Amino acid sequence: MRTLEETAALVRAGVLDPVLLVEDALTRAAAVAHLNAIVHLDADGARKAAAAHDRTGALAGVPVLVKEIVEVEGLPYRCGSASMDEVGRQDADVVRRLRAAGAIVIGLSHTHEFAYGCTGTSNRVGPCRNPHDPSRMTGGSSSGSAAAVAAGVVPLAIGTDTAGSVRIPAALCGVVGFKPTYNTLPTDRVFPLSQTLDHVGVLTRTARDASYALTALTETTTLEPSARPRLGIVTNAEYLHLGPEVRSAWLAAVEKLDTVDVQLPDWSTSFSTAANLQGPEAVANHKDRIQDSYQPDVRQRLLEAALVQPADYQRAKIQAAAITAELDAVLSTVDAVITPTVLTTAPPLATPDADVRRQLLNNTRLANLTRHAAVSLPIPADGLPVGLQVIAASNEQAVAVACWIEAQR
């Protein structure tokens, strides 16, 4: 399997043809259409872009998918909702960066409606299905991005992450999900869920690809894995209420690592603080928009979010700063903190949202609240995929540690 860096280098050298890369992606997309990972395939546009490609750029000729809440000029802009039927007026900043780096957008990936859900089951076109078992969830809200990468349609997809929406589906689908620090990839022309917590991230097959993609999109350098990192392993009980498959994979993975016990900020306070920031901002973003055509779970979540009092929202802003300082202090003693990404493997599609929401969101919300870099990478597991989460003070440190862990397998 070629890396992103190798693919782009071969395109620049004239060895690989962008037209053939696009055709391969389109063929694979058709073969896995039953997964519902792609809500709009821009075959004609991708072919034209490939034929006219100048063979330059760090992502030269690489086919990519973009989460459908991210605006792409000329493509449908629906956010997974039957209440929207718009066309993108211009490219979001992250899409402009993709094109400038030489990537070719082949279409739009499935999202939980308006990115307001962690299961990937609620969308105008139905649920997204897990490539490892189509009867199971992908997780969300960047459901299609994770599923498409896992299914081999594209090596790179763009997602967004407000409470874990890149890392949750990455864990359940067995790929890498990288949520960089806040505003590393701007949220310009991305439909907002919570401006305080929204991040744009990438999904790839490997940590090294995620590192390369971020470098290509930000024109920054990344740290190379060097000495064995000092890793803090979470000891808060709430992060370790694991299902049997996850527990087995987690214990086997951490056995190979040098770890010291660390205590993360109080889970209950962190979780409620993030919820009290997200809820009122989501309600404000949907003011005068909510319709009966919204997915039932999304509509219900917005109605519940409207009950958060202004005083609770203001208090959450203050608490967020204190919690961030606490995590900064922990990260000053280690290279990164590791946790399981999700408490469970992919649940069946028919599982009620209320029964799995806490299991999926439990471990990912903290890094959005504190805006630290966080990566989910797959670890060896018997059966369905399991993810390990790396939280670090910087993007460079997060990917260096993730790449080092990946190399130990």
Give structural notes.
The chain has 409 residues and is α/β, with parallel strands linked by helices. The chain folds into two domains: 4-218, Amidase signature (AS) enzymes, CATH 3.90.1300.10; 231-407, Amidase signature (AS) domain (Amidase signature (AS) enzymes). Helix content is 38%, strand content 15%. The chain has helices spanning 4-12, 18-31, 43-51, 93-100, 143-150, 167-173, 207-218, 244-254, 267-285, 296-305, 310-331, 353-361, 365-370, 395-407, and strands at 38-41, 63-67, 76-77, 86-87, 104-109, 156-161, 176-179, 199-204, 231-234, 259-262, 336-340, 373-379, 386-392. The strands form two sheets. An eleven-stranded mixed β-sheet has the order 1-5-2-6-8-7-12-13-11-9-10, with helices on both faces. Strands 3-4 form a two-stranded antiparallel ribbon. Helix 2 (18-31) packs antiparallel against helix 3, helix 9 (267-285) crosses helix 10 (296-305) and helix 9 (267-285) crosses helix 11. The longest helix is centred in the C-terminal third of the chain and has 22 residues, at 310-331. The mean pLDDT is 96.
